[in-house]
Structure prediction request, 237 residues.
Amino acid sequence: MTAETRVLRVGSALPDPPFEFRDGGEPAGFDVEFTRAVARELGLAWSLVPYRGTDFNGIFDALADGEFDCIASGTTVTPERRARADFCAPYLVSGQSLAVDTARHPGVRGVDDLRGLTVGVQHGNTSQPIVDRLVAQGRAGAIRVYAYDRIGQALDDLSSGGCDAVMKLAPVLTWLVRDRPHVEVVERGISREEIAVAVRTGDQGLRDRIESAQRTLAADGTLDRLRSKWIGTPVQE
Prediction:
């Protein structure tokens, strides 16, 4: 962001509903409405910059290279990501969930039922290290890593046999399976993850301004309204 442009450029990996997706060609979702509101509070125009990489973690390289001013993409705060970007205060708390085709695997009701089964994750998603640990502990059979933009294929594979379960953040997975017969989210709350806007390392000025706008949006009820609309609950968890 520069004084000349007066535009807040927001990097997002689409589609990732309900955080960001396209509805009739136009951007929509929680992060879209939230960052538009932040931009208004800051007196800035708003621009969405789609991240098209196959590994979500590459979005932090794009941020460092100046492709956008901040990231708002249902982004979980992790120690590894803190080493690559600075994060604002979290605006949501959520966690990983597990989906299966219950016609294929009626006995799978959660991570305790994954022994010998293959779990699909997106490349760079925070579900990946969780499933890696399950496999290392012998609690799951294998991990299948899909390119970040191939989540649709992963969900198709639940029914065709390409994988047995898919792990992803609960609001997103709940949205994605709603029109898929027999595919259900069978467990939520597998992890506890804080979701926040990220800015370039050292950009304290923009971080402070976004956090100030976020506090205003929390105080006037905008954040609660957006959580209710897109996540289904007005509170963070």
